[in-house]
Structures are given as C-alpha cells and as structure tokens.
Amino acid sequence: MNFIILIIIIYILTNFVESTHFYGGTITWKPTDNTTTGSTLPIMFTQSYQWRQSGPLTYCNQSYVLNHSPQIPTGISKLICVTSNSSCGGYNALNISGYCTDFSTILDLSSSQISTVQNITIGSKFCIAFQGATWIGLQTVNCVTSASTTSNTTTISTTTLSSCYNSAPRWSIGCCLDLSIRLDGLINTPPVTNIISPINVLVDTETNIKIPVIDANNDVIRCRWAQNTSLLDECGDVCGIAPSSTLNSNDCILTFNSTGTIVGQYYPITLMIEDYYRESSYLPYSSIPLQFLIKIINKPSCFTKPMVSSNLSNCTPISVGVEFNFTLTIQQGCSNITIVDLFRTSPLNMYKKNLIQVGSTNIWIITETWIPTIDQIGSQVYCAIATDSNNIQSDQYCTTFTVLPVGQTLNCPTDFILNRTTTTTSTTTTSVTMLTFVTTTVASSTSMIGTVYVNDNSGLNSLNLGLILGFGLPLLLLLIALSLYCCCCQHCQFF
C-alpha cells in the first residue's frame, strides 16, 4: 500500500513541477519506408519541445547536449493515443522526454527532441496528444477554464485587448495520423516546422512572424488557428485566435499588435500547419501543431535589434553521414554592446561552437557542425535567435534542410518554404531594423484571413465520456485515499 501511495505522490509532484516549465513545441510523424508491402508501416514520431532551463526537471547544460543524457524533462508524461484503442493501429504511448539540443542561461530556455519508430497498421486513422496542466499565466481569449482541468485554476477576468488573464491554463498539443494511400499512390509525409519560444515583442509595436515550414511532398501548405474539436483537442485552454493578432493562412504569417499591452505579459500562439494536394483541395492530408509564446518586453533607449544571417539557401540538401558546416553572422544593432548568446532549435547531433567577434567590428560569427544520421532522412527545420548585452533579441532566423540517403541526388522539394525572420514596425516611432525602415500606425485586429475546415467525428464524444468515467473516478478515489493517509500518518512530512 505504501508503495502505491509513493507512486501516486511521485506522479502528482512530477506533473506539478513540470507544468509551469512548458513553453510549447511541435509534433510530427513520417513513414520511414514508403515501399512496404506488409500490413504495417514503420512510422517515425518526432517530438520537439521547449522548456524553462532553470526548472528542476527541465535543466540542461553542455554535458547533457554532448552525452545525450540525461533526457529532459525527467518525468513520466506520455504522448498518448486519444482515439479508441481499437483504432490506434498498434500505437503505444511514447515518453515525451527527449535529448537536450540547446540551452541558454540568459534566456532561461532549453530545447529537447526525440524520434521514435513504431510499426503502425496501414490505413489507420487516429490522433495522439501530449496533454497536461498548466502553462504559466497567460493572456487568452478563453476566459473560462476547461471543465476537464484538474488543477486549482483561478481565472482573473481583467480584460486587455479583448483578452483576460488565465493563471493556470491547460495545454494540449497533438496531431492526427492518416495512413491511407494518397492520390499519388504514397503514404503522406506531413510538413515539418519549429520555432523558438518565447518570442520577445516590444511593447506598442506590430510584429510579423513568418512560420518556417517545409513539406517533403511539396504539397500546398496552409496554417490555421488550433481548435478543440470532437476529433482532437488541439489546444487545451488556449484555443482560437490570439488577442491582437491576425493570421494569413495561405502565407503562414502571424501579425501581432502589442499596442496597449503590458510589459511582462505572455500570449499563447497555437497553430496547426496543414498540407493539401492542390490549391482547390478541401480537406488536408495532415495537421501538425506548432505552439509558442509571445512575451511583451520594454522598449529600451536603443532598440535596434541584432540581425542573424547566413549564406544558406531556403532549403539546403545534405547527405547522410557527411559532415556539414555552416556559419551564422550576427550584426550588432546598437553600439557599445556585445553579443552574449545564440540559442537555437536544431536537429539532433548538430553542435555549435563559441561566439567569436570579428576583430573590433560589430560583427560576430558562430559555426555549426552536423553529421546527419540515417534516421534524420527527410525535412529538418533550424531556427536561431541572438541576444546582446542589453538583453535585446534579434528576430528569429530560420532555414530548412533536406537530408538524403548516401548517393542520392542532392535536391530539395520545390521552395514552398516560409521562413527567415520576423520584422517589426513601431506604432509610435520609426523602428530601425537591419532590413526595413518603416513608420506605420496599425489598428488592433483579431480577424483571421482564410477559411478553416475541420473534420468532425461526433462519435468520439461517447469515447471521451467513457475515458473520463473509466480513469477519472478511480484516480479520484486514490487521491481521496492519499489525502486521508497524509492527514493521519507521519510519512507525509516531506510535503
């Protein structure tokens, strides 16, 4: 009995400690062998998340990166199938802990990635998700906490720009698999995306954020706001259009207007990236999540940002097992400062060297080295952000890679790639960036450009109810027993 109670305590503490250290991420999947003739297909699931680096379960340093150990976060959370077990195609729940790919003590940020292959029945259609509670306190349009939230959530209904403060919103990040044969005779390979979170946005500015995307099938790509449907809860308590933002669904460009916001506020962005066979297609082949935060920061006396660049093209083809090196150039935005940090979301096994100043100039460089492995064949997204000694961040620099088998012609999919950087224009003064010099006044807008089509499967409602009754009641009884035990014995003094 004591052992069971200890397991419950560990589970509760793990989820509690881990909760406020989640900064977002993305989940994707791909067939590793499109030519199989059996009844199952090897599918690689890739999870990429970002965390608070100072967290006890999400801490990372250079040793973690080089040794691929230990994994972060240390815990027992799972990427589970949220469809009925009979429809999951043999999928088994995956641990969400991954290998640390980078960390920053200055940004208090760490990133993780892990890929796992499972044999899934061809023709299967099911959804998977990583769900938990809670995010840090966020400004959201959903001012009522979800009924399924199990934490003691207090929502403060003070509105700012048609938003309210939610102190403990629940998260849900996931995607659905469809292993049916496409019109071109293939099993689909979904898009790949990533981004650094949180993105710092100066108060009283308008910022355009281009979502980096690459699709191995060269499909038509569109972006939409995540939703909570009967098929999949894509976003927990932070669904829908983000306050003060507009999404161009065809170009995957998010515009965020921070006029009237308060320094220190966080805004959640929950998107789904979808691939379509042609422009006129009604339903997507797949929907891949991308979730990140926007943080409002003060406008310093000099707010000209550093700029990150390289000589890479939008998509760079690379061969498995061949060392690939490239250099990022960082140009200072303000005088009398230094570049102190470069954080990136990178493919596994890519290692950065030290930042080096070029003589006494305002130019800094950093070199990346990568030897792709066979399990990285396909599309990869890389993003980087530089920080100077005034704590001013660059816009995100993003690019993409296509990893190919040895001996195959080094080609990329046609450039349906939306990436590079964000651009900022001030709503009160002229904002000087490295690429644009613009003065503009922008009205706050929360409209969405484009139309969203969502597959609905109301039959899953009864499934969700069954899961709640099947698992919720026993867990509730265990928690009650735990409470009684803790109140009546001395074994719980460590609380």
From TrEMBL:
Residues annotated as signal peptide: 1-19
TM stretches of this protein: 432-453, 465-485
Keywords annotated in UniProt: Membrane, Signal, Transmembrane, Transmembrane helix
This protein's record includes keyword Transmembrane: yes
Protein name per UniProt: Uncharacterized protein
Upper classification of the organism: Eukaryota, Metazoa, Spiralia, Gnathifera, Rotifera
